[in-house]
Design brief:
The complex is a heterodimer of chains A (614) and B (346). With 614 residues, chain A is an alpha/beta fold. Chain A has 20 helices and 22 strands. Chain A folds into 4 domains: 219 residues, 3-Layer(aba) Sandwich (Pyruvate-ferredoxin Oxidoreductase, domain 3); 187 residues, 3-Layer(aba) Sandwich (Rossmann fold), CATH 3.40.50.970; 70 residues, no CATH class; 99 residues, Rossmann fold (3-Layer(aba) Sandwich). In chain A, helix 6 packs across helix 8, helix 9 packs across helix 10 and helix 9 runs parallel beside helix 14. Chain A is globular. With 346 residues, chain B is of the alpha/beta class. Chain B has a domain of 213 residues: 3-Layer(aba) Sandwich (Rossmann fold). Chain B has 11 helices and 12 strands. In chain B, strand 5, helix 6 and strand 6 form a beta-alpha-beta unit. Classes of the chains: A alpha/beta (614), B alpha/beta (346). The interface between A and B is large, with 76 and 68 residues. Strand 9 of chain A pairs antiparallel with strand 12 of chain B, so a sheet runs across the interface.
Chain lengths: 614, 346
């Protein structure tokens, strides 16, 4: 680069403003431009909980955080190097996220008396002027004024001019980080193709923001983050919920089964319903049911009919589905139950993330009712994990729990997406007329996996009844026989345990095969643990990381693997759930490390804990 | 039990072919036996293939029904048969789906799914066995039990205002609304055939005697001595006439129905039953008086209302056909690729 930029291995920016300030769009644009440049990136949006919180208030602040680097990036960043705030509330809500000595870019118009009052600053106090931000590098811009000046004579109304001000900010940030405007210009031309005046105004403002960096006499230090050495290939950006939706469609296409989704809207799972509803040309059937119970029971009906049936929800909705999950276990029909976890209990923290539904998934039913549980670790991993959930459901004739969470659902990362042809096969085994030979079809006859064949209505000779009452081995007839009941309970459990024969052994994500400390994680804590362990290893600590995807059944070698370390630490965003299961199953002195604040672990806090044990 | 080899199986089946090898566990004398018998009698006459028939039930005495039908079947969980049937019918529209439910199953625990199934108008048949009591749990009052009903859970009498099931069905925009009774097999068979013929959700309320916990609940309508006076069999295009001597009728005076004597009023001036008339059907389902009160209206039986409205599964699957016709079948690689990509070179 021609300028005297500071070279950094990574940078984290947090954009914050009112919902109406175009924060998400600004963040998305910066993400794509940066990814196209060749950085590794990870992003996380932070929407206000209220749909339309009053302008200028703390409740109305929308945020978007991006971490990008010349090395691999696993999280959207613990704290930010640059905080971009469009108003006083955005500053107040996010200042704690800024690194000591970090940079603030503030839109001065958002700090007028009205905005200061709405953000609940004391009368007469303006943080941009009172010296309270002296420990940071503060740059103030009158974005509104400069946008107006740029578009003077454009013929656009004040409202339209005002709407382009995020482009000024974006242009300026592009200048700071030495990025080109090309991608955003193309994006604007496509988005507003039918409104040439708006395209022109936005591009003009974007360029004005960029040139402001060049021409203004700011002492701004530009930053250069070089392209990362990442695996060559074609990448796209992906969030967890769309990855889940695409994974389901892929499983449907590869198995040749029609996809049916029974769902009821709930935060943060609804986007899977929205996404699948858009893809009906894949034969996807989405049914917005009257409640959570109908969502799962309609899926059970579709599964009986031979569809790849799925239901999506979050904790409170899963609680309502509990009885029907038990039915699916008794019916031994394929069904995928998706829980995009959020803070609980009860309504809890709908827009915040948590991992507190693991015990609910593993144990939360009446009677002895085991089922497989699989958890995704990153946004793009939602694709592979839900695909695997579908495979297990179909090939082992069982309902399967797939766990995601709010952090994965809304977080995004680059994804070197696979080719359809490279995806593993999923084979459904349907009962045919031949299974009724000898005049008696046995609906609960099992194969070597202990799975039963899928006998769907419409096949002559296979007429049979299934239900929630205990059934006799093989015939499926109602049975109250004591020995049969105990036999069946154990058989159903063995069927789930046998899935361990078909899943990969547990591998280490990082670190030595023997050592002082093993971190066992699951789900969305992956990025923070990965970052912290990497750092601890570089600093010479004896620590390894295993991230568990298959929680029921566990991979066969997990118990042995844990024996190779002096300490086992299980970080979870709950009060200790996986740790209980591990201790129960393997009698290991695993120790919990818990955070229950509705926000992910920072790699810093994990690192600090690791070095006390490793 | 199936004894048919696929190669030599005849295209039709008989009532006998619908009998399973399971022992029927209903109490002797239960009204359910008659309903099972009528269903097994009628089904072979409907031109269906046996393997295309599915019976789905919830929980309750009536919900044992699928175990006694040699078709496909599911005995599910309490109140959810309607929702399970919705998912099945949405994805397998060619199947003939029959829902077996009771007054507790459909209107208490399953009330929500019941009304939503009706408004969506899936082409399924619901047989609502109404015995005005919880039988399987041994005798608590149900949402159709009359006010003041003394049961195990209401020793001082129920204070619940009961549902009028057919008024509920009309309120949920049901497209086929009918009532029959266990003690009138001929009538029931006629109504079952009509229910099957209707394209859309067919709701048949069947008065069913629980001879153990609520014996005689419908006696006044079913017993010879009182039936003619207490009931009124409605037929499309026919005047509303009842009584042992067929000497009474219903006259519609504005929106007010009146019982009149045919000695005073000509049959031509009576209310002529019109199944397609929603307003009149809404009045007819309100003929719900306590049959012991002097001057009460007769309780109607038959098809109250029938309307042709598109079915949910038609529209549901049509959308998919339409989008495939206009956009082409989905391309998985294109979907995986998403709207914008970039290449990282080695």
């Amino acid at each position: 680069m021609e300028n005297n930029s500071l070279i950094a291995t990574d940078a984290t920016i947090l954009f914050a403003g009112d919902s109406g300030d175009g924060i998400q769009l600004t963040g998305d644009q910066f993400t794509t431009t940066t990814a196209l440049f060749g950085n590794d990136v990870s992003t996380f949006p932070n929407y206000p909980a209220e749909i339309r919180a009053p302008l200028g208030t703390l409740a109305g602040v929308s945020g978007f955080q991006i971490k990008f680097g010349s090395e691999e990036i696993y999280t959207p960043g613990d704290s930010c190097d640059l905080l971009v705030v469009m108003n006083a509330a955005a500053l107040k809500a996010n200042l704690k996220q800024l690194k000591p000595g970090g940079m603030i870019i503030a839109n001065t118009e958002g700090f007028d008396p009205k905005n200061l009052r709405l953000a609940k600053f004391p009368e007469g106090v303006n943080p941009l002027e009172d010296g309270s931000l002296d420990s940071y590098k503060l740059y103030t811009l009158d974005v509104t004024k400069m946008t107006k000046a740029t578009l003077e004579g454009s013929g656009l109304g004040t409202k339209d001019i005002d709407r382009t001000k995020n482009m000024f900010v974006l242009g300026f940030i592009y200048w700071i980080y030495n990025r080109t405007l090309e991608h955003t210009i193309t994006f604007l031309e496509q988005k507003f193709a039918k409104k040439p005046a708006i395209v022109e105004a936005n591009i003009k403002t974007l360029k004005a923001g960029y040139h402001y960096g060049d021409t203004s006499e700011t002492f701004m230090q530009r930053v250069q983050v070089d392209a990362a050495k990442i695996t060559p290939g074609v990448y796209r950006n992906i969030n967890g919920n769309p990855a889940t939706a695409i994974g389901l469609i892929a499983a449907s296409q590869k198995s040749g089964l029609n996809l049916f989704l029974g769902s009821y809207p709930i935060t943060p799972a609804s986007d899977i319903l929205h996404d699948l509803s858009k893809h009906k040309n894949f034969g996807v059937r989405t049914f917005q049911a009257e409640d959570e119970i109908a969502a799962i029971t309609s899926a059970i009906g579709a599964a009986f009919g031979g569809s790849l049936a799925v239901t999506t929800s979050s904790g409170p909705g899963i609680a309502l589905k509990t009885e029907a999950i038990g039915l699916a276990i008794m019916l031994e029909l394929p069904l995928v139950i998706i829980n995009v976890q959020r803070g609980g209990p009860s309504t809890g923290l709908p827009t915040k993330t948590e991992q507190a539904d693991l015990l609910q998934a593993v144990y939360g039913r009446n009677g002895e009712a085991p089922l497989p549980v699989i958890a995704a670790r990153t946004p793009s991993d939602c694709f592979y994990a839900v695909y695997e959930a579908c495979r297990i459901a179909v090939e082992h004739s069982t309902p399967v729990f797939f766990l995601s969470d709010g952090y994965l659902a809304n977080g995004a990362e680059p994804w070197r997406f696979p080719q359809a042809a490279d995806l593993p096969s999923i084979t459904a085994t349907f009962a045919t007329a031949e299974d009724a030979e000898g005049g008696k079809f046995l609906p609960y006859k099992r194969d070597e996996k202990l799975a039963r064949k899928w006998a769907v209505p419409g096949v002559k000779g296979l007429e049979h009844r299934i239900g929630g009452l205990e059934k006799e081995h093989e015939t499926g007839n109602i049975s109250y026989d004591p020995d049969n009941h105990e036999f069946m309970v154990k058989l159903r459990a063995e069927k789930v345990e046998k899935i361990a024969d078909t899943i990969p052994l547990q591998t280490l994500d990082n670190g030595p095969e023997k050592g002082k400390l093993l971190i066992v994680g699951w789900g969305s804590t992956y990025g923070s643990i990965k970052t912290a362990v990497k750092r601890a290893l570089a600093d010479g600590y004896s620590v390894a990381h295993a991230h568990v995807r298959y929680i029921q059944p566990f991979p066969k070698n997990l118990g042995e693997l844990m024996k190779n370390y002096d300490h086992i630490l299980v970080p979870e965003m709950n009060n200790g759930q996986l740790v209980r299961i591990l201790r129960d199953k393997y009698l290991v002195p695993a120790e919990g490390f818990n955070k229950i604040k509705g926000i992910p672990f920072s790699s810093e806090e994990l690192y600090s804990k690791i070095i006390t044990l490793a | 039990m199936s004894t048919l080899s696929p190669d030599i199986a005849p295209e039709t089946f008989t009532s006998k072919d619908l009998v399973t090898d399971q022992d029927i566990r209903w109490c002797p004398g239960c009204g359910d036996y008659s309903i099972l018998k009528q269903v097994q009698t009628v089904l072979p006459e409907l031109g269906l293939k046996r393997e295309e028939i599915v019976f789905i039930s919830g929980i309750g005495c009536s919900s044992r029904f699928p175990y006694y039908m040699e078709t496909y079947g599911m005995h599910s969980i309490h109140g959810r048969a309607t929702a399970i049937a919705s998912g099945l019918k949405a994805t397998r529209p060619e199947l003939s789906v029959w829902i077996i439910t009771g007054d507790g199953d459909s209107m208490s625990i399953g009330g929500n799914h019941f009304i939503h199934l009706l408004r969506r108008n899936f082409d399924v048949n619901i047989l609502l066995f109404n015995n005005e009591i919880y039988g399987l749990t041994k005798g608590q009052y149900s949402p159709t039990s009359e006010l003041g009903k003394v049961t195990k859970s209401t020793p001082m009498g129920s204070v619940d205002h009961p549902f009028n099931p057919l008024a509920l069905v009309m309120g949920a925009d049901g497209t086929f609304v009918a009532r029959s009774m266990d003690r009138d097999p001929i009538h029931m068979r006629t109504i079952l055939k009509r229910a099957h013929a209707h394209k859309g959700t067919s709701l048949v309320e069947i008065y069913q005697n629980c001879n153990v916990f609520n014996d005689g609940a419908f006696e006044v309508f079913t017993e010879k001595a009182s039936k003619a006076e207490a009931t009124m069999m409605v037929e499309n295009g026919q005047p509303l006439i009842f009584g042992a001597q067929k000497d009474k009728g219903i006259l519609l005076d504005g929106f007010t129905p009146r019982v009149v004597s045919l000695n005073d009023v000509s049959a031509n001036d009576l209310w002529i039953h019109d199944e397609s008339n929603r307003a009149k059907a809404n009045l007819l389902v309100r003929f719900f008086d306590d049959a012991t009160i002097e001057g009460h209206f007769p309780r109607p039986f038959g098809v109250f209302y029938s309307e042709q409205r598109f079915t949910y599964e038609q529209a549901f699957n049509q959308q998919i056909e339409d989008v495939i016709a206009s956009k082409g079948a989905g391309d998985l690689d294109k979907l995986l690729r998403g709207p914008s990509v970039w290449e990282v070179k080695g």
